[in-house]
Amino acid sequence: MCGIVGVTGNSNAKDILLDGLEQLEYRGYDSAGIYVNDQHGDGFLVKEKGRIADLRALVGDEVVGSTGIGHTRWATHGVPSVRNAHPHVSANGRFFLVHNGVIGNFAQLRETYLQDVELKSDTDTEIIVQLVGKFSDEGLDTLAAFRKVLSLVDESSSYSFLMMDKEQPEKLFVAKNKSPLLIGVGAGFNVVCSDAVAMLTQTHDFIELTDGEVVIVTPDQIKILDEKDHEIKRKPFHVDTDPAAAQKGAYPHYMLKEIDEQPGVMRTLVQEYFDASGNVKIDQDLLDTLGQADRLYIVAAGTSYHAGLVGKELFEKLAGIPTEVHVASEFAYNPPLLSKRPFFIFLTQSGETADSRQVLTQVNEWGYPSLTITNVPNSTLSREASYTLLLHAGPEIAVASTKAYTAQIALEAILVKAYGEAKGIQKVKDFDVASELTKVANGMQELVDEKHNVEQIAKEMLSTTRNAFYIGRGVDYALAQEAALKLKEVSYVQTEGFASGELKHGTIALIEEGTPVVAIITDPKTAAHTRSNAQEVLARGANVLFIASRDLATDNDQIVLPEVDPLLSPLVSVVPTQLLAYYTSIQRGYDVDKPRNLAKSVTVE
Predict the structure, then answer these.
(1) CA distance 51 to 31
(2) DSSP string of 131-161?
(3) Would the pLDDT of 27 be above 80?
(4) 267 to each of 264, 271, 272, 434, how far by Cα in Å?
(5) What global pTM score does this model have?
(6) Which pLDDT band holds residue 246 (cuts at 50, 70, 90)?
(7) I need a surface site. Which of 359, 473, 508, 556 has the fewest CB within 10 A?
């Protein structure tokens, strides 16, 4: 969601901030701003609604300095506007603050402490910087004022704060709770960012922060303090990611690039998790703990939740272990009755999803084991779970997830293989996951190489429609839900994914002449039933697109899928649905990589 960048000790601060914000554009935002101080008492605050390019156009040559902070805002309190954009400034003009997260008791703080202060915005963030200014005016030094404000913020709040004091222009004041923030270690300078990708052109060494810590960053020192002001020493971790991997290259859009990268992701997962003899390489301690569970609970949100639905099929059909899949935001406040020996699996592309993190915090309090499956090493959910498995998918920049979804399913299959073999389950032993994923990779390649066919179908069926439906049964129903989400995310077509057998129980009333319906058919057990349901909507005027496995296809099916194991069919059937979403968005003239109102990493509840 919102993005934070900061730098101290580098005379190129302006460009570092703007370039860093551009790297965070994928997270989703509606306005942006920077504050730069020239170390001689002059500061430059520039904010703008819209894209980073709009902000950059306003930043003139006079904006110079070696210390600064920047922010991309995704509106939570107050409409997208210049006045609500960050950084916010205190009434005395001394303090400048950027913030990711939500302050739960901002209204109470305003009423209690700031009735005599004229606020310039509608945001919860401004309350924080005004309080720092107020307590500083009352005689507290900057750190003490900052700490006093933190003590007033209630437990429901989430925040990453990055603040500058105009009277101490080389210092950055940092604090976090429930929202990600990193300190980057440079050569003679230091940086702050909410995502390492923002600063990979400056450093590959980062220090993670934990909740409740306060940090003072100067060009030559990073001082981490706990809640009692005791200093904490923490070594940086190294991020190997090549900054070029987060670039589009020759592609017009990140989403298309990431769709095309999926065959390579499948091959990478096989290389990472299987040795030369075909044995799965997963930590034995994880397998031992997993083997003691009597029920699995997969917790996720959005696309990751849909990957979890496929994972449930894999765990239950192959390994015979009962598995539940839960929406993180629902589980957090309405947890189900748990079994005696539960094991939790968290699926999250970013490793920072606030709803999932809230559930993980509860799971840790209950004392149950957990596994995070994520694309980002050293992310919050990775650090706080008992175990972590990495997706090795490379940076995913487009807001609409594609390769992370397929990587999650593939890794779930690999985990099932390791679990089943450890338990001596013959059905799993006979399931050659490495070979099947190689088939999947080849099938994906075949589909992306024929993307021009899907482009034409999108133009004919979806470029002007106001709504659409995906239908399927079993894993095809799980896939239908993901396909529907992808189309609505990037093209704004009102799209729903339904179990095909449920159409006649109400949904068929929505079918009109020309309504697009996409039928997914990959399971031999249910193929005939789904075709029958498709005939029901055809009879009512629907325009039906059939996506079917080669062994189940008829001569009239428009998209024929390469043959893979039915349990892994979502890995190939999802590809044409991703392409349908991509081309529909492009044909409607939308920004497919940054759809409206959405954010890549959802770091507020």
Answers:
(1) 7
(2) HHHHHHHTT--HHHHHHHHHHHS-TT-EEEE
(3) no
(4) 5, 6, 9, 9
(5) 0.80
(6) low
(7) 556
Rounded to whole angstroms, the Cα distance separating 418 from 279 reads: 8
Q: Identify which of 12, 35, 41 has the alpha carbon closest to the alpha carbon of residue 85.
A: 35
Distance between CA atoms of residues 299 and 302, nearest Å: 11
* Cα dihedral sign, 115-121-127-129: negative
Strands, E, within 255-380: which ranges? Answer: 295-300, 323-327, 342-348, 370-374
Cα–Cα distance measured from residue 420 to residue 433, given in angstroms and rounded to the nearest whole number: 12
CA distances to 48, 210, 398 from 605, rounded to whole Å, are 26, 18, 21
Q: What Rg value do the Cα atoms of the chain yield, rounded?
A: 25
The answer to whether 46 and 3 have CB atoms below 8 angstroms apart is no
Lookup result for tokens 């940054």 = 594
Pick the range with the lowest mean pLDDT from 36-45, 50-59, 161-170, 421-430: 36-45
Q: Which residue has the tokens 């925040």?
A: 159
Which pLDDT score is estimated for 524?
94
Cβ-proximal residues to 336 (8 Å cutoff; 6+ apart), any chain: 324, 326
Write down the pLDDT at residue 572: 98
pLDDT value of residue 178: 82
pLDDT at 276: 87
User: Among all residues, which ones are annotated catalytic?
Assistant: 2, 600
Contacts of 123 (CB under 8 A, 6+ apart): 77, 78, 84, 86, 88
Query: 3-state DSSP call for residue 519?
Result: strand
Of the pLDDT bands very low, low, confident and very high (cuts 50, 70, 90), residue 1 is low
As given in the structure block, the two tokens for residue 322 are 């009962």
- Amino acid at residue number 590: Y
- Distance from C-alpha of 422 to C-alpha of 29, rounded to nearest angstrom: 46
